[in-house]
Amino acid sequence: MPGDDRVPPSRDRFTATGIELAIRLGVLVLLLYLAFTLISPFITIAIWSIVLTVALYPVYDWMVDHLGGRRRLAAVLLSLLSLVVVIGPATWLALGLIDSIRILAEELDPTSLTLPPPPDWVKNWPLIGESIFEFWTLASHNMQAALVQVAPQLRPLGSILLQTAADAGIGAIKFFIALIVAGFLYAPAPALVESVRMFSRRLAAGRGEEFVKLAGATIRAVSRGVIGISALQAFLVGLGLALAGIPGTSLITSAVLVLGIIQIGPSILVIPIIIWSWFTMAPTTALLFTVYMIPVSLLDNVLRPLVMVRGLDTPMLVILIGVVGGTISYGITGLFLGPIILAVIWELLVAWTRERQDSRAT
Questions:
Q1: How far is the C-alpha of 235 from the C-alpha of 293, rounded, in Å?
Q2: Count of domains in the chain?
Q3: What is the pLDDT of residue 164?
Q4: What is the pLDDT of residues 142-185, one digit of tens each?
Q5: How far is the C-alpha of 271 from the C-alpha of 290, rounded, in Å?
Q6: CB 340: neighbour CB atoms within 10 A?
Q7: 338: containing domain
Q8: 189 is a domain residue
Q9: Residues 323-335: pLDDT tens digits?
Q10: Interior angle at CA 68, CA 65 and CA 71, nearest 5
Q11: Which of the four, 74, 104, 143, 181, has the lowest number of CB atoms within 10 Å?
């Protein structure tokens, strides 16, 4: 009828359906957010547990064969062996690090530090010359007073160092927990892998299983190429430093291990130590030390590409970018997530390119 402005029933149903859908999506998002909040403290442990299980499963499988198929016994023995292998060197490095810091603190005792008076030409430096000259003069007469003066500026640095130490301690605790959790994953690993494969087939029919295999191969390659080579290199560097009698061996060894894992390399530490050895050691000793340390410092450049490429079709550059980018973005967890993500993306691009070429050819 003219002038009838009633809303059609179809529009009412559409509006009601939209409101219902919005409410359902809102509830789903809220539930997902609450679930993520609950499990977020355990994400790092879960990732490390999966990484350790995948990386060590060949060893577990070998132990099962030699123990007559006793899967639980093999899991317990491998977990205990992993804890011994990790805790032993970690404890040695921690004790050595504490001792090195103690020695360094004794050497840098403010009451024993002395500085010569500043030269007059320091005053002529633009903008900062006068301030530096005054502070240098104060430090040459009373080092403690100079340190008290700069203490407020050093407090933020101290807070950062304390937070870094706390994060490192929490990370170590999570890693030890992940080792224990991994022990419970060895036995049901085949069933878990099959579940992941079924889920991957639902996500990407035809290629999902291939991506699961690629993720496992990438984890093993990164474990061997990054952590394995870094640990070997740190051990060889520490051995050379100990034989040469270099002070602070444990501190330097720990730094070499960390620098190797984050893809910086030990040369930034080893080269200054080699230069220092020529000023403090006998020429023959310094020469032998140099001949040993230079190849060791370059060991990762030779072995890492060879080890990481084994078992992977993904180009080495893609894996390396994933390792470096993942470590920078997500810390030590990103060391594995980065190359896995980039490897899967690379394989998707390769598959898409091939499909386009095949369709054009036909």
A1: 12
A2: 1
A3: 63
A4: 666 666 666 676 667 666 666 666 666 676 677 778 888 888 88
A5: 9
A6: 22
A7: 206-355
A8: no
A9: 778 777 777 677 6
A10: 75
A11: 104
